[in-house]
Design a protein that fits this description.
alpha/beta
């Protein structure tokens, strides 16, 4: 029997991280991302507690929604996360991704996101084992593999996390599951190929999309998507 790689059958999606955008022009930057072929907008939310940095909150996300019809892929790096889920759902997040370590009851947080009619993502830091989310894989829409330690943009990609991507892909194919596998952290034109080969079908990238090739966003998105 020939095993079919499910990832190869799906379009590789690009979710540009606005952490690398010009924050004084966020509205126009998001418009440009949509015009240049981005599949979604990746919003990194940091609280200065769960990770050592501060970024944007619900009011900014709400104001940015009017600039794009794309999916808002919101990664909550905040703790405790459970009590803030409503705020980000109401602000316009379409996918809400949380960390298992950031909630006292992961099952309850997953259910809360689902009850708000949002897609559920779970994120794994480089040192976090996939074991902590195995029993939830049939309840979620996305697993976000961090390929840097979260908190700051521009870090170097950690290739060792590709083992987790491969393991998740094998579980997904073996059990016929449909969750997306997203990867975020230091993604560039070289390591994106390895990530896709390992099974990732959503790539988050900030610096490469906004800065490479003299800021040619359309070209950079196309290059990242190519296998």
């Amino acid at each position: 029997m020939i095993l079919i790689n499910l990832v190869s059958m799906k379009k590789i999606q690009i979710s540009p991280s606005i952490l690398s955008a010009d924050f004084s022009q966020l509205g126009s930057e998001i418009k440009k991302l949509e015009e240049c072929g981005a599949d979604m907008i990746h919003v990194d939310v940091m609280d200065g507690h769960f990770v050592p940095n501060l970024t944007i909150g619900p009011p900014v996300i709400k104001s940015l929604k009017k600039y794009s019809s794309l999916i808002f892929d919101v990664h909550l790096m905040i703790s405790p996360v459970h009590k803030y889920i409503d705020d980000y759902a109401n602000a316009g997040a379409d996918i809400i991704t949380i960390h298992p370590e950031a909630t006292d009851n992961l099952a309850e947080s997953i259910l809360k996101i689902k009850n708000l009619n949002k897609k559920v993502g779970l994120s794994l830091n480089p040192e976090t084992k996939i074991d902590v989310i195995l029993k939830f894989l049939d309840q979620i829409d996305l697993v976000l593999i961090m390929s840097v330690n979260p908190g700051f943009g521009g870090q170097k990609f950690m290739p060792e996390v590709l083992t987790k991507v491969k393991d998740l892909t094998a579980i997904k194919e073996d059990k016929g599951m449909k969750f997306d596998i997203e990867i975020d952290g230091g993604i560039n034109f070289e390591n994106s190929k390895a990530a896709i080969k390992a099974g990732a079908n959503i790539l988050v990238s900030g610096t490469t999309i906004f800065k490479d090739n003299n800021g040619d966003i359309k070209r950079n998105i196309e290059l990242l998507r190519s296998k």
